[in-house]
Hints:
Elements: H1 18-21, H2 23-45, E1 47-53, E2 57-62, H3 63-72, H4 76-102, H5 109-122, H6 127-141, E3 146-149, H7 151-180
Antiparallel strand pairs: 1-2, 1-3
Helix pairs in contact: 2-4, 2-7, 3-4, 4-5, 4-7, 5-7
Amino acid sequence: xxxxxxxxxxGAASGLSEAGRHPLxxxxxxxxxxxxxxxxxxxxxxxxxxxxxFYLFSNSVSLWSALVSLAEEREWxxxxxxxxxxxAFPIVKLVWLFVLWxxxxxxxxxxxxxxxxxxxxxxxxxxDVFVVALLVVSVKLGALAQTRVEWGxxxxxxxxxxxxxxxxxxxxxxxxxxxxx
Length: 181
């Protein structure tokens, strides 16, 4: 039996979203989106790096506090780049996935177009840039301070990884619908 078989009268023209077409799967994907959003929030406000200076002073930094600090120092270029790619883009991507999965008709051309653009923008995921930035900070501090990666990095990385997996799931589901629907 085909996975996407529909009762009579509920074919591609029915206008159901993917979540509506597959309630159990829809609930699991929505749960995954909520978990990814929670992990993203934890990764943004949780400590990502602890700096220890001469074993006497330590300072933990979150991604959000780093953005605030950069703004206070008027480093607008870094604020915009980090803010867009590490804060705004992941939030927009999660909201976009939610809309694609729950609110758009799975068989529509608009849905197909939105999935295409989501795949294009997914290439701009900044997890690797974020990790490289942490490494640069660690190397630049060298003898001045010791750095320790904290749990916020892992929460942020888990959010990005889960979002990528959910994007692939939603895109795969669309391909299955086109092939068998």
